[in-house]
Amino acid sequence: MTQISIAEASKNLTQYIDAALTGEEIIITKDNQPVVRLAPVTQSIKRDRQPGSAKGSVWMSDDFDEPLEEFQEYM
Prior knowledge:
Elements: E1 2-5, H1 6-11, H2 13-21, E2 26-30, E3 33-38
Parallel strand pairs: 1-2
Antiparallel strand pairs: 2-3
């Protein structure tokens, strides 16, 4: 783990990004307190969408679109 100040990070940012990409943990400090961890972004794995994959898993009442009893007087 490498701790550097904000001033040092701004001078050599490319170097520290390269180090983080190789797996090194880089901590940027302000007033000797850690404030930022420099780490690579991991890509999420996207699956292809399967149309109809939820078929049968959604249930809806037969009277779903009927007015609620509590609101009959407003209808």
